[in-house]
């Protein structure tokens, strides 16, 4: 009888043990572990969207040459023409690239006399990354170079299409000897610009409108923002080791530090790494920067890879410009807003700064605004140049103004200097009685 009882007890213990093993293997614990280490750290749920490198590389503007020294410019906000041209070019193939000196062709003459389109990027794009956007032959000798412009035009002399990729060093161009583009294709691109705003050359390489731009709207946008707690969870692997100073804006552990500024709208984060040998590779750092944002909070809006603000260490400094309704958001000198900026060392992030603002899609208080053009815009640009600025790009943008319950977005002309600094060159003016 005793032996039988022992057998039943042993059987029950085995059943209980098996049941407990099942619970440990397949059920979720009631409470999360409060201490996370580098070994058991679990990636937190993204706050924003995940993007691929190709999503962040697109032309800042398309300069369309109509022939007879007539030109126009399409920006990402120029819908649908910008998208129609870019989508068509992304489906074409560019093969057998051959290098030549940029001085081998009179580009001013080409721009005046030939029809074509220039794709101008906000910064130099390594071929390795450009190949993620366009179908470019990767098996050629100079594939480690970087490109800041693509120019496609029809040759009047030989009735053919010529395609050139401009090296960012300003010395070389690469011609695609084989490109599945026809004269009809280029004429179609040019046709989109026949009835658009006329632009004229300013200086050596800029194009400005002859007539005021009257299609942009100012608006008010409600917003939310990522909290300090959300960013802390995404940036620190061990929550128990994080210390907070009394005012609750500075967080650090034994290595990393995070600061929340501007009333909770801006984040600065540092993670020092030991110095390493070797030069920084731009492609490597861009890929690492995109992965880092994907893994530590995600993207709060559309962004574009643009020129960094340190020309000496440009491969180590990565900046992504925020867009709203396909228009870049450019803050003034007294406020950080509308971009993500990172410093890297051989693919390792050492500093990370970003806007925490989440702009809603719904807008209110829309008003039509007018951007200056012609002689008025020339005078404003001349003032910038007289103060020592060398302008490399001009584009319409939004200037944000943070209010209590909304952010006001006002159209402006923005410029980027050769060192990477972005400034506001001209504000828009109101048009009486105009609203949409």
TrEMBL record:
Pfam family for this entry, one: YycH
Protein name: YycH family regulatory protein
Residue intervals of the Regulatory protein YycH domain: 3-424
Domain of life: Bacteria
Coiled-coil residues: none
Organism: Cohnella cellulosilytica
């Amino acid at each position: 009888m005793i032996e039988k009882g022992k057998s039943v007890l042993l059987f029950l213990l085995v059943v209980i043990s098996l049941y407990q093993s099942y619970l440990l293997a397949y059920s979720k614990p009631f409470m999360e572990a409060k201490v996370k280490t580098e070994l058991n750290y679990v990636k937190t749920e993204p706050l924003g969207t995940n993007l691929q490198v190709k999503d962040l590389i697109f032309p800042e503007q398309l300069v369309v040459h109509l022939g007879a020294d007539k030109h126009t410019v399409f920006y990402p906000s120029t819908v649908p023409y910008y998208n129609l041209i870019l989508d068509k070019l992304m489906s074409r193939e560019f093969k057998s690239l051959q290098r030549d000196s940029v001085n081998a062709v009179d580009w001013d003459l080409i721009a005046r006399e030939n029809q074509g389109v220039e794709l101008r990027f906000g910064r130099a794009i390594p071929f390795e990354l450009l190949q993620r956007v366009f179908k470019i032959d990767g098996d050629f000798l100079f594939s480690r170079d970087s490109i800041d412009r693509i120019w496609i035009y029809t040759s009047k002399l030989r009735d053919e299409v010529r395609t050139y990729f401009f090296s960012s060093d300003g010395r070389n161009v690469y011609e695609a000897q084989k490109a599945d583009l026809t004269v009809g294709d280029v004429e179609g691109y040019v046709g989109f610009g026949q009835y658009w705003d006329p632009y004229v050359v300013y200086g050596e390489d800029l194009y400005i409108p002859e007539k005021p731009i009257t299609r942009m709207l100012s608006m008010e946008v409600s917003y939310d923002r990522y909290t300090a707690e959300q960013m802390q969870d995404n940036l620190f692997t061990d929550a128990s080791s994080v210390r907070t100073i009394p005012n609750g804006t500075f967080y650090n552990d034994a290595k990393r530090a995070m600061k929340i500024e501007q009333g909770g709208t801006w984040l600065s984060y540092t993670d020092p790494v030991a110095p390493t040998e070797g030069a920084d590779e731009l492609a490597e750092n861009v890929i690492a920067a995109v992965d880092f944002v994907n893994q530590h909070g995600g993207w709060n809006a559309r962004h574009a890879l643009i020129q960094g603000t340190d020309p000496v260490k440009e491969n180590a400094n990565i900046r992504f410009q925020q867009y709203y309704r396909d228009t870049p958001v450019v803050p003034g000198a007294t406020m950080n807003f509308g971009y993500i900026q990172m410093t890297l060392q051989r693919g390792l992030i050492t500093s990370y700064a970003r806007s925490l603002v989440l702009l809603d899609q719904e807008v209110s208080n829309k008003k039509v605004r007018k951007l200056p053009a012609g002689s008025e815009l020339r005078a404003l640009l001349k003032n910038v140049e007289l103060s020592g600025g060398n302008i490399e790009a001009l584009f319409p943008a939004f200037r944000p103004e943070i209010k209590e319950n909304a952010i006001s977005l006002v159209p402006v002309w923005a410029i980027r200097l050769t060192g990477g600094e972005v400034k506001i060159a001209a504000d828009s003016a109101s048009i009486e009685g105009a609203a949409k």
